[in-house]
Structure formats: structure tokens, C-alpha cells
Amino acid sequence: MTKTKPILTVTMNPSVDIVYQLDSLKLATTNRVTSVYKTAGGKGLNVSRVLHQLSCPVLATGIIGGNLGEFVTQQLDAIHLAHDFLSTTYPTRNCLAILHDGKQTELLEPGPTLTAAESVHFIQHFANLLPKTQLVCISGSLAQGLPSDYYVKCIQLCREKNIPCLLDCANEALVKVLHSAAKPTLIKPNLSELSQIVHQSFSEDLEKKLIDVLAKPLFAGIEWIVVSLGSEGAFAKHNDHFYRVYIPSIEVRNPVGSGDATVAGLAYGLVQNLSDEKILSLGNACGILNAQENETGKINVQKLAALREQIQVMKIK
Amino acid sequence: MTKTKPILTVTMNPSVDIVYQLDSLKLATTNRVTSVYKTAGGKGLNVSRVLHQLSCPVLATGIIGGNLGEFVTQQLDAIHLAHDFLSTTYPTRNCLAILHDGKQTELLEPGPTLTAAESVHFIQHFANLLPKTQLVCISGSLAQGLPSDYYVKCIQLCREKNIPCLLDCANEALVKVLHSAAKPTLIKPNLSELSQIVHQSFSEDLEKKLIDVLAKPLFAGIEWIVVSLGSEGAFAKHNDHFYRVYIPSIEVRNPVGSGDATVAGLAYGLVQNLSDEKILSLGNACGILNAQENETGKINVQKLAALREQIQVMKIK
Fold first, then answer.
1. Which chain A residue lies closest to B99 (C-alpha atoms)?
2. Rounded distance, CA B18 to CA A298, Å?
3. What are the structural domains of chain B?
4. Pick among A92, A107, A171 to test the B interface (most B CBs inside 10 A)
5. Which of A41, A191, A306, B171 yields a CA-CA distance of 20 to 30 A from A233?
6. ipTM exceeding 0.95, yes/no
7. Which of B33, B37, B103 to mutate: most A Cβ within 10 Å?
8. pLDDT per residue as tens digits for the range B126-147
9. In whole angstroms, what is the distance from residue A228 CA to residue A117 CA?
10. Spatial separation of the C-alpha atoms in residues B24 and B27, rounded to whole Å
């Protein structure tokens, strides 16, 4: 395994995630917080951590800045996870989750606004990392200041080098990719993201509708489309084949990062050249295992084999 | 001025203060914050900044840790304010103020818990700085893990070296000092802190009551006691003399840090050997100027001379 090229994960707008746990949030006064938890956050970093737990070589990249950027890399160093970020002068953001009164109130900072020069510089940095990479996972939103077709450029570079590229993003950044000639190897929209893109609801006759929608020209050339259905499992298209993934019902502790863990499992399955069924069971198993932990981007690898046995992948067409 | 020894300010539990400005804080959902402001916080740092603006040589010390500790020292470096902090492995805290719906909701992290070894180490560090110091300002709460009589030890060291020591703290840390033989040169309780200490209210006949209370044995040996009365000015005792300070009515922008600015002004007056009246007018003027700025620990030095003219210091006894 040690001589294998790593999977490169891309996080363009990472964060230091702060969780405050309070019995009650009192407004208009001072709250003294005794339960404080700070971690390196960002979808690509979650992917990285799960790959790392799967003993898959991984290299994390993206853009960081300031003292909070250093916190991010120190957190990765602490678990011996390789990284090669580009630094910006504007500091990495905090994202705050306050757990209080049985609710979760989030406060998200916007993060750095990149300059045109930094935008160009990161593309060069990314291109330089590609020869050392066997597969790329791009996850999450773009930093401010980057054009919405920025991931199109990243995917073009992967295509030129014939490196598979998984893309997990939403909104305008995803739409730009779908309308471009630069096709990612895999996308993983959830049902509501897909609904938004195709302006269609999936309330009934789910499988038939998904087959019709994913066969549209908009998705042509994308080898893998994995649509996550939450507790209902997943629906997938690989070239001309369609699959339904059934998962066991589980007790969810923290669903945050489950999609990222799924991407990690799918990526790991792809680089191992597993069968379609095994790729899908591995991806979904990682997602479920993440949901069973309190920590985001964490899976209990010991439970992986048994869980995969409980996941059914049915070929539909 | 350059050859003068600096004033040493002590901040045992500094912070990185984050201010989020929102039209409205929506609970149980995600708030995207566009107005984010981060500064080095802590009462001793506010004193330092005001002294620095007064062109008084200052050296900031205390305990810092981790990436947020580095942020604190970088903020001081950026304004060329000298510092010599002791580092702990546990990171410096965030203190968060959310300004929303016309309210201010604060979330304060506890900060590092110091070990017994660190407690001893800082005392040594502090003692090493004293020969380079002409006056010490100790401000704010103790870090967790420190005994409540920790400031007593600091003041003892100042006394041994014959260095004046100003103490601005509350609660148990102040009570321990008052009951010890280590007398600070100056304390600056506000009326409610004083009320708590002496278990007495000051609702009527204010000046007479203050004269009686400050003459109690509890305060014997403390050269200066400056009781801040908010918009009503201040009341002060210097040895056997009592003073009332009358201040002009002003528009308050941000009162946070006004007490610290007052300490800075008093300290600067003391090291310049000014008259009692001038020391008190300088301290109060700095407090007022801080309240007229949005930024904590900031004063408009240009306005200082004119404002001091508007402050009346009346000798009562």
C-alpha cells in the first residue's frame, strides 16, 4: 500500500469548527461555555480522514490562512495525514455550532476572499500535485472570490492527466460543471440537490423517475452518479447500469459528514478496481459508520466488514 | 521617553474576541455571518493598548497558548507593542459576542487550565520581568487552575522590589488580596463590586458612605482606591485625602474597556508623578475616550487635553 499514489482531496474553504454545548442559550446576556470542542472542518477534510482510517494513502490540499489555517494543518499532522495546502494571507474561518435547548444554531463565517492571483496560483498548485495522484476528490463550496466555474478548470486538468475525479458540491458550482465539457468521474447529489438541478420532484415512482432523469443529456459523460437517499439508501448509475442500494436501519448519532464518508468509500472502491456492487456497498457502509459516531469524519473500521454484509445492492437495469 | 522602564501589564486569561454582527440571530438553523471582527482581548491587553497610544513604554505579559495565543501576540506585534508571555500547551480561548436584534449575546470559553508547574513557572517569569519594570498593572480574572490568592503572590513580589502595583480584578481574587498583607498601590472597584465586598449598599448619601467604607481596616495600606461611578464620574481616596471626580455627559459608543482605559490613565499619571488631581483627570479622561470609540482599548489621544479640562476633581477631605 505504501507505494501507491495517494488520493488527493480538495477543500477550497476549510474551517475550524467550534462546537459549544450548553443546556440553554440565554440571549442578551453572557453564557459561560464549559463544553468546547474545536476541530479542522470542511467536507474534503472529512473525506481525507475517512480515507486515512481506511489505510488509503491520502494527500489533502486546498487553501488555508492565518492561525486557524495552522490549526487545520496541525490537526492533520496530529493524525499523520499528509497535506499540501496553499496559504493565503486572509485567515481561515470559524464555523460555530451551538447545541442548546435541544436545538443546533449555526454561525458560519464566510472565510477568505481569494484574489485573482491566488485563484491562478492554486490552479498551478493543484496541477503540480496531479502527477503524484491516482484519484481526486473535490468536496464542498468554493472560497469567495473564485469564479463559479473554478471546478470546471480543476476537472479539465484531471481529464488531461487521465486521473479520475469525484466531485461533491452543490448549487452554481455543480451546475457549471454539468454544463461544461469537463466531466467528473462521479458526482453524488442527494435527492433535493438533484431536484433543484433538474427542476423536478421525486415524490413518487422514485426509481423510474431517477432512471429517466439520470439518462438526460445533462448527465451524459459522467461515469458514476450516486444519488443519496438518506435512510432509504442510495440510487446509482454506472455508465448504462442502474443500481438500488438498500441499507439496514441504524441509530443515527451525528449524520454530519456522512456524505463525505460515502465519497471516501466510493473513492477507495474505485482505486481498488472493485465491482460496482462492492464500490457501492463500501461507500454506503462508510456513510453509515460515520453517522454512528459523534465525531464528524470518523468511522469504526472494525465494523466495516459486517456492515457491508447487511447492505444490498440490486441491479435494476 | 525611550529610556524609561516600561509599565508591565498582566493578563492571565487573554482571549481572541470574536464579534459577529447580524440583523437577527435565527435559532435552530444556520446563520451566515458577513460581519466578522477578531481581536486580541483581555483587560490587561486593553490597558496595554491605551498606554501604548499614550506613548508610554509598555510590556504585556500573561499566559497564552496555541494558535489563538499566536494570534494575540501577532496583534500586538502589528502595533509594535512589546510582549513577553509565558506559553502553555493548552490553547488560548475565544470569547464570542453576537450583536443581533439590538441585543448582545456573549459566549465565553473558560480558557486554559494551568498546571501547578505552570503556576510556579509564571511566578518566576513575572519575577524575572520586574527588574525591567517601573509599575505593574494586573487586570482581569485568573486562569483556571490558579489558586485564588495568586495575585497576592504577584503583589508580594512587587512590594519586595518596591514597584507600584495596580490591581483591577473582582470577586475572590480581590477579596484574597484585601485580606492579605500584600497591599497593591491602587485598586479600582466599581460601586457594585465595592458593595459586594463590604456587604453594604450605596443608594443614598454616597460620598459620606464611601468615606466611611474606604476608611475601614480592610482597605488600610492601599494607597489609592478609585471607585468608578459610571456616568457619575468617580470617587477616590489617596492616603488620607478624598476626591470626587465629575465628568461631562458624553455619548457612549462602546463602554467595554473603559475601566481598563481608566487604569491605563491612572498608571501613566502615577509614573509621571502628577498631582492627585491630574492623575484622576487623566484616568477618567482615558476611560471616557475609550467609551467614545467603537473599538475596545482605543482612545483618541487628540481629544485628551480638551477633555481633561472638562473633568473636575474636587477635594472633599
1. A28
2. 29
3. 1-185 (3.40.1190.20), 187-221+223-317 (3.40.1190.20)
4. A107
5. A41
6. no
7. B33
8. 999 999 999 999 999 999 999 9
9. 37
10. 9
